[in-house]
């Protein structure tokens, strides 16, 4: 298994690489904040929880208690309360449907279509985020059930720099950011043309 390079911090990236639940948390938090912050947050959450990041313990916490942990400075997300709730829902899903083992979500999927259905059903994962996550699993972690590229299209295509699935170095991060800036500018221009 290759080492992920998403947070810019070796310790946080090691956790993402080794702990499937930490990786899911990072994906959930990767919205409305810099991606480095989203993907370093699982490490910070583990520290704040006394060195353990288990779906069982997070699922069992009081919602206000977990929200307070998320809100400690520096906050784990720009919107700590709502994201603490989302992470707790994710933990409860992993406990309830996968016996607390997040890797079963993708490890037991027989096809790309089944994998997309499983990931899409997770709290905090819309259609696009689910496809990006499948692309990340396939491109960087070797999780490639039949049809995974089709299920993750366009993010699973080789040679692209569309998303976190393509970030393996500071250079590739810069290419992904440039692509996103182009997409944002194109969307803004299209909106202006309609006005």
Summed up:
By secondary structure, this protein is an all-alpha fold.
Verbal overview:
The chain is an all-alpha fold and 195 residues long. It has a single domain (10-159), classed as Hypothetical protein, domain 2 (Endonuclease III, domain 1). The chain is 64% helix and 0% strand. The chain has 11 helices and no strands. The chain has helices spanning 10-18, 20-29, 35-48, 55-60, 63-71, 80-98, 104-107, 112-120, 127-141, 148-152, 170-194. Helix 1 packs across helix 3, helix 2 runs antiparallel to helix 6 and helix 8 crosses helix 9 (127-141). The chain is globular, with a radius of gyration of 17 Å. The chain starts with 9 loop residues before the first helix and ends with a helix.
What is the number of domains? 1
How many DSSP H or I helices?
11
What's the rounded overall pLDDT mean?
95
> Can you tell me the CATH architecture?
Orthogonal Bundle
Percent strand equals under 5%
Termini gap: 49 Å
The fourth-level CATH homologous superfamily is Hypothetical protein, domain 2
What's the CATH class label?
Mainly Alpha
CATH topology, anyone?
A: Endonuclease III, domain 1
- Estimate the global geometry from the Cα principal axes: globular
Q: What value does the Rg take, in angstroms?
A: 17 Å
Biggest sheet details: none
What structural category characterises the helix and strand content? mainly alpha
Order of helices and strands: HHHHHHHHHHH
Total beta strands: 0
